[in-house]
Amino acid sequence: MNMLDGMDVMVISYAAPAIAKGWSVSPEALGIVFSSGLVGMTFGALFLTPYADKIGRKAMILVSAAIMGTSIFLTAYSTSVVALIGFRFISGLGIGCMLASTAALAAEYTPDKTRDFWVSFVVSGYPVGAVASGLVAAKVIPQYGWPSIFQLAGVATLMALPLVYFLLSESLEFYLKSQPRQALEKANDILARMGAGQLDTLPAKPVKRQGMPINSVLDGEYKLPTIQLWIALFLAFATLYFLTSWIPKLASNAGLSVELAIYAGTVFNVGAFFGIVTQGYFSSRYGLKRTIGVILILTGVLMAAFQLFIGSTVLLFVFGLLGFGIQGGFVGLYAVAARMYPTEFRTTGVGYSIGIGRLGGIIGPAIGGVLIGMGLSMVANFLIYAIPTVFAGIMTMYISSKKIS
């Protein structure tokens, strides 16, 4: 499901050069299209994701996939920028819920010692989907036009619905702690398939916190680390979504063909996969906050030094390193959120963290569109966005939760 999430996020970036050429769309207008999807993701993460703590992670994943698949498919039939903005917003609602739900589900089925690795590994499906869709887009868009990639992405997402329904298990912790209807029967069914002993009764239900879901993550011991995590995610999101949205277009502006510009974005996501897995491994060995902080700071330094690689044969490799660093560090912050909050409001905590962070993701591509419209080069843009990347790394190191090393 995270592979489909990555595909559905990146497909607009791969189509952007062709849309801009065919419709004579300005960089500023494209920036609004990119940001509309991120606004949808923010709304989805903030206002839909908390329902996963009531209806279950699996149910929310099904809802998210249905929203994503339908809206992505219909995007192919857009005839104006306004329609693109609307469909990107709707697809963003589903995308915003998907990552939070899958991260929470992974955290609840993995042992404490290696949880950081497995949460990161599950989320690493995101760049894998982005890479796969990039390879397809590079062949399909020049031959069949940009609508074809949205049709393929929409159909692929909708085809996953029966797989999720029949093969994905609901969270055992959700049944034991949230205790929805028939929780004991459903929990015992999962335990039987795991080869574990059966329960006669459910454990005592945790005391439910009163008020809005936001009260849970901003209460008592969670308040300061939550704010620190939000700041780090906000800054990391701003850089990440600037890069994922604009790398193909910037590469095209630099003189690369449409196919090679798409490959630049693809290489970025290949690096992202290895960065996420590597970060998960080192986090399990050397500590989550320290590992993420170092990765983000080094990524900022690489962005600041990007001018050294212009015209070099290693330029695509540098794009891969940028993906390695920004995605590896950024996804590690999901693991921080999954570890920091208890089961009763874990998806809410992860969702709010992603939602607040995506405010940075909204601002990042939009400002990028303005800067590119002003004529700033790729080097100048990378130098500007190196600053929030470094600060994100520093803030991560200072997250004060006792549950995270």
TrEMBL record:
PROSITE patterns: MFS (PS50850), SUGAR_TRANSPORT_2 (PS00217). Its main location: membrane. InterPro entries: MFS (IPR011701), MFS_dom (IPR020846), MFS_trans_sf (IPR036259), Sugar_transporter_CS (IPR005829). It is found in: Membrane. It comes from the Bacteria. Keywords: Membrane, Transmembrane, Transmembrane helix. It is a multi-pass membrane protein. Pfam families: MFS_1. The chain crosses the membrane at residues 29-48, 60-79, 85-105, 117-137, 149-168, 229-248, 260-282, 291-310, 316-337, 349-372, 378-399. Residues 1-404 form the Major facilitator superfamily (MFS) profile domain. This is MFS transporter. It comes from Nibrella saemangeumensis.
